[in-house]
Each structure stands twice: as C-alpha cells, then as structure tokens.
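Quarterly update, task 2.4: magnesium ion-bound model.
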Amino acid sequence: MISKNLEETQQIALDFVRNLQPKENEATVIGLYGDLGAGKTSFTQGLSKALGILETVVSPTFVIEKIYELTNQQFTHLIHIDAYRLEKSEELLHLGWKEIISDPKNLIAVEWPERVVDIMPEHIKIMLKALENADFREIEVVS
Ligand SMILES: Nc1ncnc2c1ncn2[C@@H]1O[C@H](COP(=O)(O)OP(=O)(O)OP(=O)(O)O)[C@@H](O)[C@H]1O
Ligand SMILES: [Mg+2]
C-alpha cells in the first residue's frame, strides 16, 4: 500500500487492526520495520486510536515499553515497545517479555524488532519505507 500522509498511515493501521483476530494460545505480536522516521510510531498511533485509546501515544524510546489498557476490545492491552535503545534482548526479558507474549489478550507492537530478533516470537511484519516524495510511505504487511 502507498500512504500519502500521516492520516493515511493511521487509516491503514486502523483497517489492519479491524481485521485482526487474536490467537488462541499466545499474544499477537506485530514487528514494525523501517528506518528512522518511516512511520512506525505513527502506525502505532493508528492502532491505538482504532482500539479506543484516548491518550496520545508517543514514542516509548526512553521508557522502552508502554502498556495501554483497552476496554470493550478483543484485546485487553496494547503494548508498545521501542527496542531502538536496547543493548541486549535480556533487557526486554527483564520487563516480563515471556509473560507478555504468552497472553492471547495482548496485542504487542514492537518498533525496531531487528534489535531483539533472538527473542521475537512468530509475528506479523509491517514494513514501512519512505519514498522519494517526502510524505509518501510504502507499507507492506507480511504475515
Ligand atoms: N505517510 C506518512 N506516514 C507516516 N508518517 C508520515 C507520513 N508522512 C509524513 N510523516 C511524518 O513522518 C514522521 C514519522 O515519524 P514516526 O515517529 O512515526 O517514525 P518512526 O518510524 O517511529 O521513527 P523512529 O525510528 O525514530 O522511532 C512523523 O513526523 C510524521 O508526521
Ligand atoms: Mg518511533
């Protein structure tokens, strides 16, 4: 898909999450792949709006992980992780990663999954890529 602006990226995220079915035995994990500024956080903002989160989702770069409680949704939590500043995957393990990924009620969005590739479970890959035109982004979903 081609997104022409921020709003379109958020709309693509919204359409994506509307079609998402929770798994039976484990969390649903989304890996957001793309360079700095590609739109990974923007995509997560689209997810959060679609899931009824009112507070503004900001980049969790400095906190690594943010957990949003959901009401009246098929998932009970949206967990937003930014692995950019992690030096080792163990840091994520210390945040209870194993428990988090084992709960089917969790929807987990991970920016920079490449940084924690060794502990990423099977996940849906969202590839974001900036195109020549400053605001255009190519967005590909690989399940
Ligand atoms: N089509 C588009 N989709 C998404 N963002 C866009 C688009 N066009 C312009 N932008 C702008 O690009 C920026 C994307 O920033 P965002 O924080 O989402 O990127 P990111 O991939 O999370 O970067 P980082 O790796 O630093 O976390 C925002 O300032 C946004 O307004
Ligand atoms: Mg980001």
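Highlight for this quarter: The chain has a mean pLDDT of 94.
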